[in-house]
Amino acid sequence: MTSSCLPEWAHASNNPPAGHFKQAPEQFVVVEQLGFEPEQRGDHLWCWIEKRGVETHRAITLCAKEFGVRERDVGYSGLKDRMALTRQWLSFPLSEPPMQQSLDRLAEQGIKVLSAVPHPRKLKRGSHRSNRFEIAIEFDASDAEQVFERWQRLQQTGAPNYFGAQRFGHAGLNIERARHLLAKGWHKRADKHGMLLSSARSYLFNLTLAARVSADSWHTPLAGEVVNLDGSGSFFSSADAALDELTERAAVQDIHPTAPLWGKGQLDSFAQAREVELHSVLQEQQLIAGLERAGVAMARRALRLRVLDPTWQRTERGALLGFGLVRGGYATAVLRELIAAPGL
User: Fold this and answer.
1) Which of 61, 100, 171, 200 could form a disulfide with 178 if both were Cys (CB 3.0 to 4.6 A apart)?
2) What does the radius of gyration of the chain's CA atoms come to, in whole angstroms?
3) C-alpha separations of 82 from 30, 56, 174, 248 in Å
4) Is 104 a catalytic residue?
5) Sign of the alpha-carbon dihedral angle for 51, 170, 159, 337
């Protein structure tokens, strides 16, 4: 068990060798990539910030206080971990750059404003295209060849698109909290417990993904599959194409099989894919019913995570990895296929 509440999710290949990562923020660098540029005009100031050891919500709180704006008026696209060196965009309803004194105080708290550009609108959640990672991993020299081979395999097959452990709270306790919340019928207050609902949906998704990984079908469409077009939010049914054609496209990572993010609505899959999806969560019907009562909308997520523009640099203690992931992908999903380390 990785925690008191979470199972050990299946690996795509045999168990990886022991290793370490994230010994210091500078060894886990995350750079948000919007895919577009601010327009350099407008009433919102978009700030490109660098954070060291500060998670996104904390950065919003500190910046809002210094800039004299309400936290709810601060825009951001994605959440970034605390134990990392991260660069991302935040937006503020400001027409002028912040005072230097404010910037200095933020720098003392681990937040540097690298640039500030005006834009007509507030930055919205999920606006960025991808994230770029530079991560130092450590492993025994005798395992170097194996780790490198696993890295090369990931480039060919992608990684199982698991939600990372941080999604489930300390020791995975968010799942039990979500069970309690939904079992008590507190769905009318669900808007105040969004993270718990997200944790529940993520847990159910991981259960289905783990079942597909164990059956070695996580990267290959099944009959009745709903597939995702790589790098997009586009989904379509396998009923619209021959399974052989979809299998060929999946082999080159043009499309990916998917699984439900449970909630209220239609499952959309059918035949073998639907059977697998239902069976993998058979013991969690109360959790699913609770999500439906809470009014969370049914959605889907790709089972596979493509590793973008990968680089590998051997170091004295291990390797420095560089790679991109689409929005919503967890770097830990990639790392756990390379090494067995705490936090993976």
Assistant:
1) 200
2) 21
3) 11, 8, 18, 40
4) no
5) positive
Q: 215 pLDDT band (50/70/90 cuts)?
A: very high
Assign 293 to helix, strand or coil.
helix
The contacts of residue 312 (CB under 8 Å, 6+ apart) are: 148, 151, 319, 320, 321, 322
| Cα gap 258→225, rounded to integer Å | 7
Question: Tell me: the pLDDT tens digits for 67-104?
Answer: 999 999 999 999 998 889 999 999 999 988 899 999 99
CA pair distance 188, 186, nearest whole angstrom = 5
CA-nearest of 302, 310, 164 to 232 is 302
Positive or negative: CA dihedral 236, 241, 246, 249 = negative
Contacts of 45 (CB under 8 A, 6+ apart): 91, 92, 93, 94, 95, 96, 97, 116, 117, 118, 119
3-state class of 212 per DSSP? helix
User: What is the Cα–Cα distance from 206 to 174, expressed in whole angstroms?
Assistant: 14
Other Cβ atoms closer than 10 A to 183? 12
Q: Mean of the pLDDT values across residues 195-219?
A: 96
User: Which residue of the set 43, 81, 191, 230 is catalytic?
Assistant: 81
- Taking alpha carbons only, the member of 147, 166, 129 closest to residue 324 is 129
Amino acid letter for position 307: V
In the DSSP assignment, the letter for residue 143 is G
Query: What distance in Å separates the CA atoms of residue 136 and residue 133, rounded to the nearest whole number?
Result: 10
pLDDT digits (tens, 9 = 90+) for 179-201: 988 887 655 554 457 889 999 99
Give 179's contacts (C-beta < 8 A, 6+ positions apart). Answer: 200, 286, 287, 290
Using DSSP, how many helices (H) and how many strands (E) does the chain show? Answer: 9, 15
Rounded Cα distance, 94 and 313, in Å: 42
